[in-house]
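=== Structure Prediction Worksheet ===
Name of assembly: unnamed complex
Input type: mixed (protein and possibly other molecules)
Chain count: two
Listed entries:
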Amino acid sequence: MDKSVAVIGGGVAGIETASILGHLGYNVILFEKENQLGGNVLSWDRLFPSRRPAHEVVTESMSALTTRCSVHTSTTVKSINKSNGQFTVGIDNGKSFDASAVVLTTGFELFAAEKKEEYGFGIFENVITSRDLEQMFKKHGKPVMANGNTPKRVAFIHCVGSRDEKVNKAYCSKVCCVTAVKQAIEIKEALPGTEVFNFYMDLRMFGHGYEQLYKEAQVLGVTFVRGRLSETNETTGGSIIVKVEDTLAAKPMRLTVDLVVLMVGMNPKPETEGILSSLGLPVNEDGFVGIKDAHTAATKTNTEGVFVAGACTGPNNITDSINSARAAALQVHSYLNHK
Amino acid sequence: MKIDGKRKIWKDYQKEIADDKFYYVRSCIRQNFFPGSEAAFLKILRDVLKKDVYDDSHHTTCSGIGYHTEVVPFETTMTVVGRNFSLMKESGYRNYVPSCVTSFGIYTEILDTWHHLPKVEERIHENLRIATKREFDIPDNLAHTSDIIFKFRNEIAEKAKYKLINKATGKPLKVVDHIGCHYAKMFPAKGVGGAEYPYVLAGMVEAWGGEPIDYPERRHCCGFGFRQYLIKANRGYSISGSKKKFESMEPYKPDFIITNCPGCAYFLDRWQYGLAEMEGKTYGEDGHGIPSLTYEEVAGLVLGFDPWELGLQLHQVPVESLLDKMGVSYDPDQKFKGLNNEDLGKPESPKNLKFYK
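=== Predicted Assembly ===
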C-alpha cells in the first residue's frame, strides 16, 4: 500500500491518528507548526483525574509512531487543495505534498485572558492563567507570587472566555472546571496552609472520576463559591482584591487574595480557518471546524477525504481527543479502501 | 502593576476626536457646581489653542438625569437630543462636544440606538418635525470635552506655566483620576483608553508632569449615582459610596483628585466635608481633605490661570495645598472677592475639615 495521508497538527490527536494510520500501512505525513510534537498537553504538568504527569501521555503516544510516519515540525500548513480526488498540501516554505486523504487535528488555543480586561491579566502581576499555574508546578512544584513569596490565599476564577457572550464565547470549554478542581487539590497538597477558593458558575463534572475529584477537593478544605467575578484590583502590597457575587447567598463579596488563577477556555486556532477556507469548508457557530454530523459522522467533514479529530472541532479532553483520533483513522481507512 | 499591559490596552482604545470647529453643549449642573470650569474650557480652546468653538445659548438639557431616573421616556430624550442636533445643523457646525459625561453617554447611546435601529431615528426626525418643524443631522464627530483637552494635552504642556510637580521635592504629584461612569462603561470603544483602564485623564496627568495613581476602588461610582442622591432616602448609599473610594485611595496619599464628570467632581469634594462633619474623618494631610478638581481647572492651573478666576474658591475642600505644591502664584485675600472686588463673604468654617489658611 503506497497511499499517503496528511495529518495536520501534532498534538495528542494528530500523533494518535498518525500512529494508527501507520499501523494500518499508510504513509503518513504529520505536520506540526511548533518545533516538537505534543501540542497543548506539553504546557501541562499533571492531568486530571489521576494527576499523572502530562508528558507521559505524549511520550506513550509518540512511541507508537511507526517508520511509515514522516514528521515535519516547525512547519505551517498554508493551504490544502483537492483535485481529482487527490490533495495537495502547501506549507510555509513553498513546498507541497500529495496525499490521498487529510486529517485535521489542528487543536485549540487558550483564550487570551487579557480580553477580559476587568480581570487584570497582563496588568496585575499576581493574576495568572491556569496554564501559568501548570508551568509553576513544573518549575517549582507549587504556585509562587511575582515576588517569589508563597501565596496564602488563592482564588480560581472559572469560565474565563467560556459561556461569556461579552467576549463572543458562548460555549462551555468543558475541561476548565475539572482542571480548576485538580489544581486546587494540587495547591492544597503542596501548600496545606493556603486557603483556596473556587468561584464558579456551574461545576460540570461530566467525566469518569471528576465528581470524586470534586469531593476530594472539598474534603481538603477548598471553598467553592457559586458566583462570577466582576473585577480585580491590586492593593499596595501586590495582593489582589476580587469582587464577586455569591449567587447562592445573593450577596456581593470582596476578598483579598495573593494569587488569582483564571481558568481560560479553549478557542479555535485562527490558522485553521485558512486551511478550511482553502478546502471550502465551514466553521461551526463557535468558530471550530464544522463536522458532517454531530451523531453519526463526528470525524467527517462535508468534503470527502477530509477528516477531523481532537479539539479542532470543539473543546475536548485528552481521552475524547485520542478516541476521536482513532475513529478518524478508521474512517480514513474505510474511505481509502472503498474509493 | 505592569504599566506595559495598560499601555497595550490604551493603544487598543483610541478614538477619533475632531481637531477644530466645535459645537459646544453645556452641562445642566456644572455651572452651579464649579462655574469656572466651562469658562476655562472656552478660554483654553479659544485663547490658548486658537480653536473655533460655538457656544450656543439656545440648546437645552439632554434630559439625561430625567432619563436615568425614569422620569423622562427614552423617546422624549431622543427628540430633545434631535432638537439639539438641529441647532448644531443650523449653526453650520458638525463636531458636537458636550461638557457633561452623562450627556456624552446619552448621545453615545442614542447614536448607537439609531445605528442599529434606523426606523427609530426616522421616528425621531418625524417627532421633531411635528413639534418644531426642525431637521437634524447626526454629528460628524462626537467627543466629550475631556477628550478635546486630552487631544491637546501636549500643546497645553508646551504652553504650561506650572507642572504637576511638587516644587519643594521635585517629585511628580500623585493624582487619582476618576472617570464618570457614563463616559465609557456603557460603550468602552467610545472612551479614550476604554472602560476598565481609561486613559483620558491619566494621559493629561502624565503630559503635565504628574503621576496617575491606581487604587483598588478606582472604578467605583463617585457616590452620585443619580438615584442614590436624587432620592433623599437613598443618600446614605451616596455618601457610603464616596467613603469607600476615599478609604481606598487614602493609603496612596494622593495630592489631588481629577475627574471628568460634573457629579463626580462635586460629590468627591462635598462628601469629604460631609464625612468630616459626620465622623470626624479626613482623608488628606493633617486634617485636610484631598482637593477634587475638574480637568479644565487642572489645565487652567497648568496654564497659569488665576485660581480664583477658575472658581476654585467654590470647592468645599480647599485647594491651597495643591496650589502651594505646584508653586502657583495666588492672592489669598482675593479668594472671596467677586467682580469689581466685591466682598462675597466667607463661608462658615467646617468643624472638622481644616480650612487651609
